[in-house]
Amino acid sequence: MWKKEDVKSQGLPENGPGISANSPATGNVARPASASVPVSSGASACISQGIRIKGEVTGSEDLFVDGHVEGKVNLSNGSLTVGPNGEVKADIFAREVIVRGRVDGKIVGREKIQLWSTGNVAGDLQTERLTIEDGAVLRGRVEIETGKPLDKHAEARGAAAGTSKGGAVSVSSGSAAV
Amino acid sequence: MSFLNKLGIGVGAGAGGSRELPRTMGSSARTRTNGPAPVAAVGATRAPEVRESNRVSNGLKEFLWNLDGLGRGTLLDLGPAWQTTLSFFIERGFRVSSEDLLRAWKDFLTEEEGKLREAAGRAAQHTLDVTPSARASRFLEANLQYPNSSFDAILLWDVLDYLEPLVAKQMVANLTELLRPGGVVFAMFHSKKPEGFQRYRVVDSTTLQVISSPVLCPAQRVYQNREIQDLFSRYRTMKSFVGRDQLRESLFIK
Questions:
Q1: CA–CA separation, B117 vs B121, rounded Å?
Q2: What are phi and psi of A11, to 5 degrees?
Q3: pLDDT at B123
Q4: Cβ partners under 8 Å of residue B128, min gap 6
Q5: What is the CATH number of domain B2-20+46-100+147-253?
Q6: A34 falls within a domain
Q7: Does residue A81 lie within any of the structural domains?
Q8: What pLDDT, in 10s, does the model give residues B30-43?
Q9: Which 8-state DSSP code applies to residue B81?
Q10: Crossing angle for the helix pair B101-121 and B132-142, to the nearest 10 degrees
Q11: Nearest CA in chain A to B150
Q12: Residue B33 in contact with partner chain A when CB distance is under 8 A
């Protein structure tokens, strides 16, 4: 039991890993490899730096992309985080999308889209709520679906830590690790 | 001059003047470091100090007045994607497109430089046409790609001051095509060569926030009234507001 808590404190995902490039499927928590664990990833699945995927990525869990994805990303109920090294050339459909890297394509974040200061998006954004941190680059059209206003007072960083749900909460720990 | 200074009333209390003031004196000019350190500020590089000040904008007020009653209009913002600016217009029912043209220009120049260096290495300079008109065409082929008559309003800010004159001229021609008849352009021009580099965001319907930023590209030209009129000769109305901070705000109605 204590081992499980140990895993959480290192920023490892709580759920079993999906597409995971460098975290073992049956985590040997006792091994002293915590330094190599990607603490920037708090999402269930991780496509880490150096991994390149071409095609369609589909799922319903949260996903952290710090590698290269080309094609289409469809996470019906999940949250997608594009890490600072991530490069996604794809149309993205997800419940929530956090961009800290580069995205070339349309983003549909059903509930929320967050562009962090390092985020760079070339494509249209469609969402209910949008948060843009100073320094983020956007080239495209913004469509706020339900007529709800943008997060006027939200500091993206604070919002990421405080208001996001599920796996996205781990983003705050991810930013600390950068 | 000395009398006013003794009283602490400086001439040119706009964005330009506020930079000269010590921080403790900045009553109208709010100075702060970039609050939550951006994620980019990692490693050896430190986040640059961001200075902000507010300025009353009659140009913006007039711009909004011209768009009043438009309903669900379309707006093209050619500055950085600021949350406050996008929020301001989306809340008023606009569909907003954002394209940071000066960043695109800087990236374009960097790319061109790389291509030139590469071509020079291969002793094949002739492969890249470096004439101003060719550069202008290449830049505009990669940017501002929207169907004609897509927008009711364009926020051009002070972009033209930083572009090569030929690029600026061709860009204004392109923007005119993108604008619907009756559409409005809000532009700004420096009356003298700007000392620093500034970006602007909308605070409210009469106020702009002026943010000193790291220089993306140097100012290319100071446009005189006649030159501005020539640039926008296809527009039926031009209105200018001259500020004390060497910044002219202009409205052009197609």
A1: 6
A2: 85, 15
A3: 64
A4: B112, B115, B116, B119
A5: 3.40.50
A6: no
A7: yes
A8: 344 343 333 333 33
A9: -
A10: 120
A11: A141
A12: no
